[in-house]
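Example 559.
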Amino acid sequence: MAKKQFKAESKRLLEMMINSIYTHREIFLRELISNASDAIDKIYYKVLADNQLVFDKENYFIKITADKANRTLTIADTGIGMTKEELENNLGVIAQSGSLAFKKENEMQDGHNIIGQFGVGFYSAFMVADVLTVTTKAFGSDEAYKWESKGADGYTIEPCEKDSVGTTIIMTIKDNTEDDQYDEYLEEYRLKAIIKKYSDFIRYPIKMDVKGQRPKEGADDELEEYQEEQTVNSMVPIWRKNKSELTDADYENFYNEKRYGYDKPITHVHIKADGAAVYNAILFIPENTPFDYYTKEYEKGLELYSNGVLIMNKCADLLPDYFSFVKGMVDSEDLSLNISREMLQHDRQLSLIAKNIKNKIKSQLQSLLKDEREKYEQFYKSFGRQLKYGVYSEYGSNKDVLQDLLMFYSSTEKKLVTLDEYVSRMPEDQKFIYYAAGESVERIEKLPQTEMVADKGYEILYFTDDIDEFAIKMIMTYKEKEFKSVSSGDLGIEPDAKDNETADEENENKELFEAMKGILADKVKNVKASKRLKTHPVCLSTEGELTIEMEKILKAMPN
Ligand code: ADP
Ligand code: MG
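Predicted structure in complex with magnesium ion:
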């Protein structure tokens, strides 16, 4: 049987594709700039391969020009250009990527920095333009060609004049409609912002003619208009620089520029990983709790770059919930992107990076705790609660990561201490890690239940956060020591001489206790003589898993 070819209504297909794969129209500029950058990368590669030629960096750039009067936006590059055949193949065939082919042809192992791979980005320009006019002259060729298309109707190719090697794309920007505004893509400030957002770290200069006003020379009170060519992008991303070249101030500037927060970071980690997962990252721990941090509105995530091009603003998969306060970015060359390059396929690479990052954050926090206690305490004040939630959630499966990062107020030290510090101070006869829960340090100090333990000379941890006791229940034991509430029935303290007295008291006051039990029948289970009281006449104690404080919290929770 003869095989038939699929037919596609290419007009519809193009429209469907353009309008369904991208969520943000502004992305067209990222795509065209990425193509221009690829084209320069390719000429760079060719020049390097040809020993006769020198690559003079000065001559390689991308130029963006907006012309409001004619409604055109022009993206010109000094890259490798396209021959007539390449125009046909690359811009005439949807999903044909000349860049992917180039990588294969030249057996470029790591693909260098070439971005293109899907062969669709170019057409995204039709989201904002009615007409695209491409003039191009290929490296090593004397002929130049013009490709033109109104999108759906196909395209034309004809010879044209062009002085220099490279490609120029002239977009005729759509008119505004009732529902859609396109004028913004002719505005200098808007274009600059889009370039900064997505293409700041393209390695070649992206230039624009910028207009401004300045005081006229010789006449202070008069202004004059001027126009100058500016490079809009920063080119070298800070994360590719050597750590030794960078100061704390550089990192702080980056934090501010990126608007990760309006405070200062307490600390940062700069990661250059080239093990199983190859990536660069800069992570920050903010000083203050963002105002919406403990609400549903707060969105965790790191910025994700692929080869210096921004892919996602907040990639949530890179951070566990208990480290959701971390800000920063990750750049990796080997991510599998989806076709719009706005999202990732869930891949092994990403989970590897995430795991790696989690460990780095943990060790950064541990060294902060060890070497810069004050800063750690500031951090803990802002985000300690999140760590405790982390211990509690997922049935305590994260306790190994987190338990050494926890701190509680200590009855003897009168400050925050870690569990490790507590245990290392425990006298030999002390069996348990004691804690007392209450609203505040002041309140807990007054609790009659603490007296006996304190009297024995044992340290008590004060739990003032609702979550504390729940988190501890998940940890269960720390360094083989169990936790014990000072209000639990059996404190595990060796009986002393007083013990016989309580038995006597028990007998002497039998009638009184019975009477009290009768009156408090629906409130208490038992009334008995206690050996833990010193200056207080009476106290409450519990049996079983739940303590009084936990019961209070559970009762207060909505069902
Ligand atoms: P991709 O970049 O994923 O390959 P595009 O649709 O963005 O897909 O571009 C298709 C192809 O057109 C590119 O692979 C490249 O070969 C060619 N191309 C696009 N823009 C340029 C340019 N400015 N200079 C040279 N070639 C280009
Ligand atoms: Mg592309």
